[in-house]
Amino acid sequence: AQSVSQHNHHVILSEAASLELGCNYSYGGTVNLFWYVQYPGQHLQLLLKYFSGDPLVKGIKGFEAEFIKSKFSFNLRKPSVQWSDTAEYFCAVNPGTTSGTYKYIFGTGTRLKVLA
Amino acid sequence: EAQVTQNPRYLITVTGKKLTVTCSQNMNHEYMSWYRQDPGLGLRQIYYSMNVEVTDKGDVPEGYKVSRKEKRNFPLILESPSPNQTSLYFCASSRLAGGLSDTQYFGPGTRLTVL
Q1: B 50-89 residues with CB below 8 A of A?
Q2: Residue A19 near residue A78 (C-beta atoms within 8 A)
Q3: Residue contact A34–B103, C-beta within 8 A
Q4: For position A33, what pLDDT does the model report?
Q5: B42 closest CB neighbour out of A90, A94, A101
């Protein structure tokens, strides 16, 4: 079965530290890849997405992610975190039409706490 | 304002009492979906719909029903709720582009407690 793994469940960083959150997926065909963020008390919202083209994608608030097809990975990075980045981060995969399904598969999430 | 709305936002009910959670979007999106969010399990897709009258199961459809009679609405129905359906539920919608689902826009969530 298709799956998405986020290996870091809880991450605590100090402000200005660099961030990298891991995401690996198990589907071998063409995929759309997403990172969503859920700030405390707010809706889930898109951080960034990859459909095709440049494997390094940039999103909002200084976040970026790199798609490495050979590793089935889509890790999220930010060079310098801020207290306001405290949130829960979800990686998601949508296999699209080639898989015959339009399901979305989310990872279990990573709770990031940034200490001021 | 482009948005996905859900009602109710909070609901406490008892085992076996049928309930419906409504979801509506004003963005003319083709794709709509329901998720449940549980601690340690992330978001799990319950059902999704590609368009009017087209629905399909996600990963955790047992105990739920959906319908898509109009493009803007996608209600979630629990015919006989049980305590293991206590969860935070999210509705989402997105446009379809080239057969692929684009960015999902999420509703505010419905916190359901089944006693």
Answers
A1: 50, 56, 58-59
A2: yes
A3: yes
A4: 92
A5: A90
Residue A105 near residue A89 (C-beta atoms within 8 A): no
DSSP state of B28: -
- How are beta strands B76-78 and B65-66 bridged, if at all? antiparallel
* Residue of chain B with shortest Cα separation from A100: B99
Closest listed residue to residue A88, CA positions, set B90, B11, B64: B90
pLDDT tens profile B32-86 = 999 999 998 999 999 999 899 999 999 999 999 999 999 999 999 999 999 999 9
Farthest-apart Cα atoms in chain A, separation: 46
Residue A98's pLDDT is what?
57
Tell which residue, B31, B18, B104, has the closest CA to residue B65: B18
- What is the band of B97 on the pLDDT scale with cuts at 50, 70, 90? low
Q: Name chain B contacts of A6, Cβ cutoff 8 Å.
A: 42
Instruction: Give the chain B residue nearest A107 (alpha carbons).
Output: B42
The answer to whether residue B90 neighbours chain A at the CB level (below 8 Å) is yes
* Confidence grade of residue B99 (pLDDT, cut at 50, 70, 90): low
Strands (E), A1-116: 4-5, 10-14, 19-21, 24-25, 32-38, 44-50, 56-58, 64-68, 73-78, 87-94, 105-106, 110-115
